Amino acid sequence: QVQLVESGGGLVQAGGSLRLSCVASGRTFSSYAMGWFRQAPGKEREFVTAISGSGGQIYYRDSVKDRFTISRDNAKNTMYLQMNSLKPEDTAVYYCAAGRVPYISSLHETDFGSWGQGTQVTVSS
After folding, report:
1. Considering only CA atoms, which of 123, 91, 100, 10 is closest in space to residue 50?
2. What is the phi-psi region of residue 110: left when phi exceeds 0, alpha when psi lies from -120 to 50, beta otherwise?
3. Cα separation of 22 and 40, whole Å?
4. Using CA atoms, how far apart are residues 49 and 112, in angstroms rounded to an integer?
5. Beta-carbon neighbour count of residue 62 at 10 Å?
6. What tens digit of pLDDT does each residue of 93-125 get?
7. What is the bridge-based pairing of β-strands 119-124 and 10-13?
8. pLDDT tens for residues 9-47?
9. 2: Cβ–Cβ under 8 A, 6 or more apart, which residues?
């Protein structure tokens, strides 16, 4: 089992930036893909972005492409999400998640077995 702890959320004005971090423990960090999901009030949790264990495979949802950047530092057991040009519609609780294999097998949350507690991101207009 993998334990995940997110940090870096907060309140920012539209057009601003935030950087989320997710520290993992419990398994060799490079042995599993990682992802970010988000859940806005009254909506279902949705995929945001994912990165393979080596960092060589990355996917983004269309609405965050060219604004968000996912990365990982396997030496520090940490994944990051750099969010630029934030919009009010990005407001949500952001969750990091650990996959079960080194590659991205799917973008569905059921393929991610461990989850962090979530961090709130609020973008004001």
Report:
1. 100
2. alpha
3. 19
4. 12
5. 6
6. 999 999 999 999 889 999 999 999 999 999 999
7. parallel
8. 999 999 999 999 999 999 999 999 999 999 999 999 999
9. 24, 25, 26, 27, 32, 98, 113, 114
The rounded distance, in Å, linking the Cα atoms of 123 and 58 is: 25
Which residue carries 């969010």 as its tokens?
83
Q: Label each residue of the chain as H, E or C.
A: CCEEEEECCEEEECCCCEEEEEEEECCCHHHCCEEEEEECCCCCCEEEEEECCCCCCEEECHHHCCCEEEEEECCCCEEEEEECCCCHHHCEEEEEEEECCCCCCCCCHHHEEEECCCEEEEEEC
Q: Is 31 exposed, middle or buried (0-12, 13-18, 19+ CB in 10 A)?
A: middle
